[in-house]
Amino acid sequence: MSSGNDTTKLAATAFFAATAGAALSYLLLKNRSKSDPVHTHTPNQLIARTSFIFPDADNVSKAAASMSHSDTQILYPHSHEERMRRRIAARMAVEDENSLPRQSVTVRVPASSANCGPGYDCIGMAVDLWTEVTVSRADKFEITAEGEGADDMPKDESNLLVTGVKAAYDTAQKEMPPLKYHVVSRVPYARGLGSSSAAIVAGIIAGLVLAGHRLPVWGSESLLQIAASIEGHPDNVAPVIYGGIQIGIHNGTRWITERVPSPPGMQLVMFIPDFIGKTSAARAVLKDTVSRADAAFNIGRVAFLVHALAVGNLDNLKWGVEDRMHQPQRAQAIYPHLYPMIKAAEEAGACCGYLSGAGPTVMALTSGASGDIFTQREKERTDFSVAKAMMQVAQAYNVKGRIVVTQGTQEGARVVKVEPPFSTADITFRDNV
């Protein structure tokens, strides 16, 4: 009995102690709220502060009126856009000093390889081949070009570079002045390596810089919206803008894109034919509908492709790039050398092969590269043997062209020169831009 009484006494003591502690805490907090005006709130101050993205200072009040994301929202590791909303809202300012109109700008943009087999119009990879475009204010319109496709690209306002600049000025709601364009192209023109998307993105970025206009990225990806609306799909423009391997979709409201990991040591061996491939002709051979079996086949393959890239299992790329929606049709109608070349590349050691974009370039992916390849033993890599095998097939089918060996790039388009510069005496940006 004494043990039971002792337990009851301890429980009662604990209860009264907790009650006394709670009462004391309440009295202290109440007394602090009376004496400290910082912690006294009016009803209006109790409204949760939210954050937003705005393109310029004039839209702050409009954005504030449409706020919907509370600062009490839980931030998960993937909540990148909400983190940026709060960061911008905390600053409540737009930096105008670098938003002044410029006289001249040079933009560097990469090539890109779209579809990657089954990822029709939604998957693309940035390729380490670059074009530089310089756009300057001038007295009259002019386009000059040198390098890849210099003689083939249009020199009038139908050039997609001009289309991109116009779109930028329309977005900035400013009148477009006479401009002079100079293109130094190292991206093969109309060969299935994203030359049109490179021109579009370069034009948009150049136009925005010249107009002194900036766009929101987090929560809107405004540059992607402009570029994809011109191109019609995101598979090329997304990797041109952001670099790396990108998956892009339209979510019913806007275009969105996410990066897929790129396996280390992966090289790109490309057979680039001498003839131009027209996307319109390559699309014309495709049917408007696909069977349920073919749709299921491609769904499985694109999932396998993304998984192989994400985990770095290059052996599975062979199955991941298989396709039934566009490659068989284009091989039969336009590129009879496609599948024999893919087979030869894989037998020579390539992880996989596929038609780059709408063609005519055939892309093979190889592994084993580490550091500078010219100081690495060839036996550790397969790019050289794969290149020879692909060229032999080209000769057998009497398709003239060349082999280019390079790699993917994690970097997308960027400004490399501008007048007047963004750098100051105190702050220097990369390449002293």
Topology record:
Blueprint: H1 2-35, H2 60-65, H3 80-91, E1 104-114, E2 123-137, E3 142-147, H4 160-172, E4 179-185, H5 195-211, H6 222-231, H7 237-242, E5 245-250, E6 255-260, E7 267-273, H8 279-284, H9 292-311, H10 317-320, H11 327-333, H12 338-347, E8 352-355, E9 362-366, H13 383-396, E10 401-406, E11 414-419
Parallel strand pairs: 3-4
Antiparallel strand pairs: 1-2, 1-11, 2-4, 2-5, 5-6, 7-9, 7-10, 8-9
Helix pairs in contact: 4-5, 5-6, 12-13
Your description of this structure?
- There is one protein chain.
- This protein is an alpha+beta fold and 433 residues long.
- 37% of the residues lie in helices and 18% in strands.
- It has helices at residues 2-35, 60-65, 80-91, 160-172, 195-211, 222-231, 237-242, 279-284, 292-311, 317-320, 327-333, 338-347, 383-396; strands at residues 104-114, 123-137, 142-147, 179-185, 245-250, 255-260, 267-273, 352-355, 362-366, 401-406, 414-419.
- Strands 1, 2, 3, 4, 5, 6 and 11 form a 7-stranded mixed sheet that branches.
- Helix 4 links the parallel strand 3 (142-147) and strand 4.
- The longest helix has 34 residues, at 2-35.
- 36% of the residues are buried.
- Residues 32-70 and 92-97 have low confidence and may be disordered.
